[in-house]
Specification:
The protein is α/β, with parallel strands linked by helices. The protein has 3 domains: 258 residues, Thiamin diphosphate (ThDP)-binding fold, Pyr/PP domains (Rossmann fold, 3-Layer(aba) Sandwich), CATH 3.40.50; 155 residues, Rossmann fold, CATH 3.40.50; 126 residues, Rossmann fold (3-Layer(aba) Sandwich), CATH 3.40.50.920. 37% of the residues lie in helices and 16% in strands. The protein is built from 23 helices and 17 strands. Strands 7-6-8-9-11-10-15 form a 7-stranded mixed β-sheet, with helices on both faces. A 5-stranded parallel β-sheet has the order 1-2-3-5-4, with helices on both faces. Helix 3 packs parallel to helix 9. The longest helix has 22 residues. 51% of the residues are buried.
Length: 590
C-alpha cells in the first residue's frame, strides 16, 4: 500500500483523494505526529483528536479563501501539516522553527493567531461580517472550538452577537469533555445529556441563540463529517455543528490518561510510554505552592482557593483532592475567577486565586474594578511568571509587573526561591488588608529541602545578599540565582540586594542605597518598560539622585518560542551575558 502523506503538501492535494485514501491518510498523520512529538515534545492529545475533522475541513472548504480559526490553537498540528508545513513540523516549537499555535505571519492558511482560548468565534464572526460588507457572500468562516473553550464567557458573547448578525459563520464544537484537565460546570453536564440523547433539538440552548444546530455526530467518521460539512458549506447564516471526539485518539495511553498526555514531553513512539527521567532532587515551584496550600488549609479553615482550568498545572489539585469544597476549578473563565474570588473574600475567607501570568491578563478589568478599586484582599498566585519557553509569545509571563504596578492598592511580591515562596504564602493566609500578587516561575526551584518551619516575614525589607563598594544590583524574583552565579568572579565591587516586595517600594531605604553607589543595575524577569526597573528610575528622577541606573530585563518585543535558556540569551538574562556585562562595568569602575 502506497503512503498517502508524502503526496500531500497543501489542501488542494486532498481534493483528488477518495474516502479510503483519506482514511489511510488519517492513520499516517497520527503516526507522523506521534513520531515527532515523542522526540521533540509538544501538545499531543488535542491534535490526535482532530485528525479526521481537519482532513474533512480542508477537503470540503476552499482554504485559505474560506477561513479556519482554531481554538485553542494547540489543536492545529494537523492543520499545519496539511498546509505546507509538513517538512517543517520537526521544528515545531523550536527556536526559528514553526510555532506550536496558528500564527498569521507564518502562513496564509492561519486565519487568526490563537494561543489563549475562546477567541475563535469572535474573530471568525468579525471576518464574516467584513466579507458580507465586501460582497463575498460565498466565503465561509469556520471557528473550531474545543478543549473546553466553549465554556468561556467570551465564546457566548460572540455567539449571542452572531445569532443576529446574519453573516456566514460555522461554529464547530469539538466536544471531547476535557481541556487540559477534565471540563467542569453545568454546560459540560448539558452537553453530556445531549450526547446521551436526553436533551433534544427542541430544547437546545444553541438554537435559542439563533444558530442552526446539527449533531452530535462522530468526529472520527470521515464519511459522516464530509457529508455534514458539505451541507453546511451550502448554507448561509450562523450554523453550529456538534461533533464528539476522543482526545488522544489513536494512542492508547493518550486516550486513557488524557491529562498527562495533553503535553507529555518525550515518550516511546512505539509503546507510548513516557520516558522515565531521573527523579529530580528539586521541587517545581508549582508543587511548592500546591503542597504549602494544602498544609496551610489543614490548619486554617478560612483558606479558599480558585483556579480557572489549571488545577494540575498549578498544583492546586493537591488541595482540591482533600478539600473540594474550599478549592475549586471554575473552568476557562478568568474574569469570573477574579470576581468570584472578590465575592468570597468579602465574606471573611482568605482567597488564593492561582492563575498563570499570561491568563491573568484576560481579567484586567476585574482586577481593577472588582478587586483593587474596592480594596478586596484577594491573593493572586501568579504562576508561570517570566519566560516560559516553547509555548512562545502567547504564553510569556513577562508583563505582570508592568500591568499590576499601574493599579492602586495592590501589593506585588516576587520571592527569590522556594523557601521564600512558602513563607510568603504562610504570611498571607490571614490577609485582610489589601489585594496581593505573588509571582513565581515555571520549573524547578534550586533548593532541595524547602519545607522549613514557618516564620513571619517583613515583605518590605530590602535583603542584602552580597557586599560591594561601587556597583549595586537591585534584583527581584528568582533571577537572583543567575545574578549571583554571574558575579562569582567579583569579591568587592558589586553589591546585590533582593527586593521581595516590588510594590510598594521601601523608598527611604532605597534612597540610602542610591546615595552609596555610583551605578545601580536593576534585574527582573519581566518587561523593562513599566517594570521593576522603571519604578527605581522614578525614585531616582523624583529625588534628583546623582547615580547611573541600568535596567536589565525583557526588551520591548514579543519573545518567540524557543527553550527558556535560548530566550534568556535573547534577553541578555543568561549567566554568560550577565557575566560579560558585569565584568565590563567592574573594569570601568576600577
Amino acid at each position: 500500500m502506497n503512503a498517502i502523506l508524502p503526496t500531500i503538501a497543501f489542501p488542494a492535494d486532498l481534493k483528488s483523494k477518495n474516502l479510503d485514501q483519506l482514511t489511510q491518510l488519517a492513520t499516517e498523520i497520527r503516526r507522523f505526529i506521534i513520531d515527532v512529538v515523542s522526540v521533540n515534545g509538544g501538545h499531543l492529545g488535542a491534535s490526535l483528536g482532530v485528525v479526521e475533522l481537519t482532513i474533512a475541513l480542508h477537503y470540503v472548504f476552499d482554504t485559505p479563501i474560506d477561513k479556519l480559526v482554531w481554538d485553542v490553537g494547540h489543536q492545529a498540528y494537523v492543520h499545519k501539516i496539511l498546509t505546507g508545513r509538513k517538512d517543517a513540523f520537526v521544528t515545531n516549537r523550536q527556536q526559528n522553527g514553526i510555532s506550536g499555535f496558528p500564527k498569521i505571519s507564518e502562513s496564509e492558511f492561519d486565519a487568526f493567531g490563537v494561543g489563549h482560548s475562546s477567541t475563535s468565534i469572535s474573530a471568525a464572526l468579525g471576518m464574516a461580517i467584513a466579507s458580507k460588507l465586501k460582497g463575498e457572500t460565498q466565503t465561509q468562516h469556520v471557528a473550531i472550538i474545543g478543549d473546553a473553550s466553549i465554556a468561556s464567557g467570551m465564546a457566548f458573547e460572540a455567539m449571542n452577537h452572531a445569532g443576529v448578525a446574519n453573516a456566514n459563520l460555522i461554529v464547530i464544537l469539538n466536544d471531547n469533555a476535557i481541556g487540559i484537565d477534565p471540563s467542569v460546570g453545568a454546560l459540560k453536564s448539558y452537553l453530556m445529556q445531549v450526547k446521551q440523547g436526553k436533551k433534544t433539538n427542541t430544547n437546545n440552548i444553541i438554537k435559542a441563540l439563533n444558530f442552526k444546530y446539527a449533531g452530535p455526530i462522530d468526529g472520527h467518521d470521515l464519511k459522516v463529517l464530509i457529508a455534514q460539512l458539505q451541507k453546511l458549506k451550502a448554507k448561509n447564516g450562523p450554523q453550529f455543528l456538534h461533533i464528539v471526539t476522543t482526545k488522544g485518539k489513536g494512542l492508547k495511553q493518550a486516550e486513557e490518561n488524557q491529562v498527562l498526555y495533553h503535553a507529555p514531553g518525550k515518550f516511546d513512539k512505539i509503546t507510548g510510554d513516557i520516558l522515565i527521567k531521573n527523579t529530580p532532587k528539586f521541587t517545581k515551584y508549582q508543587d511548592v505552592f500546591g503542597l504549602t496550600m494544602l498544609e496551610l488549609a489543614k490548619q486554617n479553615p478560612n483558606i479558599f482557593a480558585i483556579t480557572p482550568a489549571m488545577p494540575t498545572g498549578s498544583s492546586l489539585k493537591y488541595m482540591m483532592d482533600v478539600y473540594p469544597e474550599r478549592a475549586i476549578d471554575v473552568g476557562i473563565a478568568e474574569q469570573h475567577a477574579v470576581t468570584l474570588a472578590a465575592g468570597i473574600a468579602l465574606n471573611g475567607f482568605t482567597v488564593f486565586c492561582a492563575i498563570y501570568s499570561t491568563f491573568l491578563q484576560r481579567a484586567y478589568d476585574q482586577l481593577i474594578h472588582d478587586v483593587a478599586l474596592q480594596n478586596i484582599p484577594v491573593v493572586f498566585c501568579i504562576d508561570r511568571a517570566g519566560l516560559v519557553g516553547e509555548d512562545g509569545a502567547t504564553h510569556q509571563g513577562v508583563f505582570d509587573i508592568a500591568y499590576l504596578q499601574a493599579i492602586p492598592n495592590i501589593k506585588i511580591l516576587a520571592p527569590k526561591n522556594a523557601i521564600e515562596l512558602r513563607q510568603v504564602l504562610f504570611n498571607l493566609q490571614n490577609n485582610h488588608s489589601q489585594p496581593v500578587a505573588v509571582r513565581y516561575p515555571r520549573g524547578y526551584s534550586n533548593i532541595e529541602n524547602w519545607q522549613v518551619p514557618f516564620e513571619l516575614v517583613d515583605f518590605s525589607k530590602i535583603q542584602s545578599i552580597k557586599k560591594g563598594n561601587k556597583i549595586a544590583v537591585f534584583s527581584t524574583g528568582t533571577i537572583l540565582e543567575t545574578v549571583l552565579q554571574a558575579l562569582l568572579f567579583d569579591n568587592e565591587v558589586v553589591s546585590v540586594y533582593h527586593f521581595l516586595q516590588i510594590k510598594p517600594l521601601n523608598e527611604s531605604a532605597i534612597l540610602k542605597l542610591l546615595s552609596t553607589y555610583k551605578t545601580i543595575i536593576t534585574v527582573e524577569e519581566g518587561v523593562v518598560n513599566g517594570g521593576f526597573g522603571s519604578l527605581i528610575n522614578h525614585i531616582v528622577l523624583n529625588n534628583n539622585c546623582k547615580v547611573k541606573v541600568i535596567n536589565w530585563g525583557v526588551p520591548d518585543t514579543f519573545i518567540e518560542h524557543a527553550t527558556v535558556e535560548q530566550q534568556y540569551q535573547q534577553c541578555g538574562l543568561d549567566f554568560l551575558s550577565m557575566q560579560k556585562e558585569f565584568k565590563k562595568l567592574v573594569n570601568e569602575s576600577l
